[in-house]
Design goal:
- The complex is a heterodimer of chains A (about 110) and B (about 110).
- Chain A has about 110 residues and is mainly beta.
- Chain A contains no helices and ten strands.
- At the A-B interface, strand 3, strand 4, strand 8 and strand 9 of A face strand 4, strand 5 and strand 10 of B.
């Protein structure tokens, strides 16, 4: 079936560096994408979202890039801080999937002081 | 900042027993959801609830599962006869109408079936 970001890699970065977390999706009908942050023992926390009519959206220290041609989504975190250490999930929705989100497998970000 | 509250944080139950997981969504939210995350796996959609009825459910949400909004504040997930494979983190989420799909998730209930 359709799937989003099956891998759970680990990204280790130095404090202050920029981080880039990637996500691949396979459902070409996906039209809405969200990045979530999940800290240990907590639920997913909304970071930023983007609709398919955009290719870039910026928030506070975060930028999401969407490449629909290759079905790729990325989250860029500027000046990564120790508090950014968490598992990051991409999730997607398509018009024909109603309200449900399909989550990717997640990437663990470790920030070294 | 408003939160989605889930209780208990950890529930241990014997196989075959019924469990009820409780959630208090954000007060002005209208759409409610349950997701689960088996250890080491992806977060999976279970069910969505709007206007006092189920609007969507996944294949996971079989006859052993049910949801209810018994009053104006609580949203519950009941598993009638738990199986070992029901062990997972269960997340409740809610969203306002017209807020897009940026749900607010609770901190989850860890269900352990022994």
């Amino acid at each position: 079936g359709e799937s989003v970001g099956l891998h759970l890699p680990t990204l280790s970065v130095q404090e202050g560096d920029n981080s880039i977390i990637n996500c691949a999706y396979s459902n070409s009908a996906s039209d809405y994408f969200i990045w979530y942050k999940q800290e240990s023992g907590k639920g997913p926390q909304f970071i930023i979202d983007i609709r398919s009519n955009m290719d870039k959206r910026q928030g506070q220290r975060v930028t999401v890039l969407l490449n629909k041609t290759v079905k790729h989504l990325s989250l860029q975190i500027a000046a990564t801080q120790p508090g950014d250490s968490a598992v990051y999930f991409c999730a997607e929705n398509s018009n024909n999937a109603g309200n449900m989100l399909t989550f990717g497998g997640g990437t663990r970000l470790m920030v070294k002081p | 900042e408003p939160e989605v509250t889930q209780t208990p944080s950890h529930q241990v139950t014997q196989m075959g027993q019924e469990v009820i997981l409780r959630c208090v969504p954000i007060s002005n939210h209208l759409y409610f959801y349950w997701y689960r995350q088996i250890l080491g796996q992806k977060v999976e959609f279970l069910v969505s609830f709007y206007n006092n009825e189920i609007s969507e459910k996944s294949e996971i949400f079989d006859d052993q599962f049910s949801v209810e909004r018994p009053d104006g504040s609580n949203f519950t997930l009941k598993i009638r006869s738990t199986k070992l494979e029901d062990s997972a983190m269960y997340f409740c989420a809610s969203r306002r109408q017209n807020s897009g799909y940026g749900y607010t998730f609770g901190s989850g209930t860890r269900l352990t079936v022994v």
